Amino acid sequence: MKKYIIKRLLASVLILLLVSFCIYGLMRCLPTSYVETIARQKSMQPNSKSYQEWLDQLNAAYNLDKGIIPGFFGWLGNAIRGDFGDSWKWTVPVTEKFNSVVWLSFIMGVISFVLELLIAIPLGIVAATHQYSRLDYAISIIALAGISLPTFFFASLLKLVFSVKLGWFELFGLVGRYHQQLSPWGQFLDKAHHLVLPITTLVVLSIGSLMRYTRTNMLEVLGADYIRTARAKGVPEHEVIYKHAFRNTLIPLVTIVGGSLPGLFSGALITETMYAIPGIGYTSYHSMVEGDIPFSMFYMVFLAILTLIGNLITDILYAVVDPRVRIA
């Protein structure tokens, strides 16, 4: 296992370099850039240099005056030292802005991920053990609705019902207008109140696929010969389902669960933007829209790293839940 992990890590480094180069090339090919906006703003100040002079100076500062390959290696050398530059839009170091917004997305991601597991897996098992019953049909309808509904539509529907019609929640934002006047506990409750609808959106739209996946794999396992043998020997049904069948169902579920782990840090771009929650997804969206290359580069490479880590964790978890993998 140790040798396998080392080989995977070395392969991941090579893949990360190739992905980083592709991302850098795409960023350099954007039709517009925030540098041009900065140069235009500075050129309009009294007694300032011309637009072209400012543009040349800013391009030289960020290696944008070089070709894509020299510029990439210049960016890579700074990135290895932990220097990702200053965000053009947020006017602070990229890592500082990232650190200030990522933890809100992480909290939302953890809560929604835990709720997804607690809701989807038990419902998938119930649907499989009550195949073709009314309960199975009801759970399948809920799962298909969660898979089919677009994020922006479902978020807009929740806002219309619970914010506009009922007035239970705010339309957008993380804090209310009187947030600063509240006690520390009141401020915590105010933020929690604003996160109810975003987290609900994430949970409802994510449980469908995991629920269907759990049901499908559970049905496949329940039809296996060893399950019929266990029932013929008089093993209690509860033990057959949750000790024998569910453990083997975990093997394919690891793929989805392991692949979901990177999403805890990557943020929910559409959901955070719809509710104006200042997390990493919301911040990266506005950075990419306005051509903030330093922040966009850092965010995209960060996602690539999370994906590679998620794949590695998935393979390791396979060996944990399936002894046959360790033997091989």
Question: How would you characterize this protein structure?
Answer:
The chain is an all-alpha fold and 328 residues long. It has 2 domains: 32-83, no CATH class; 94-291, Orthogonal Bundle (MetI-like fold). 77% of the residues lie in helices and 0% in strands. The protein has 15 helices and no strands. The protein has helices at 2-28, 34-43, 51-61, 68-80, 94-129, 134-148, 151-165, 184-222, 225-232, 237-260, 263-266, 269-275, 280-289, 293-321, 323-327. It is globular and about 90 Å long. The termini are close together. The mean pLDDT is 82.
Distance between the termini: 10 Å
Apparent shape = globular
Number of strands: 0
Question: What's the average pLDDT?
Answer: 82
Tell me the structural class: mainly alpha
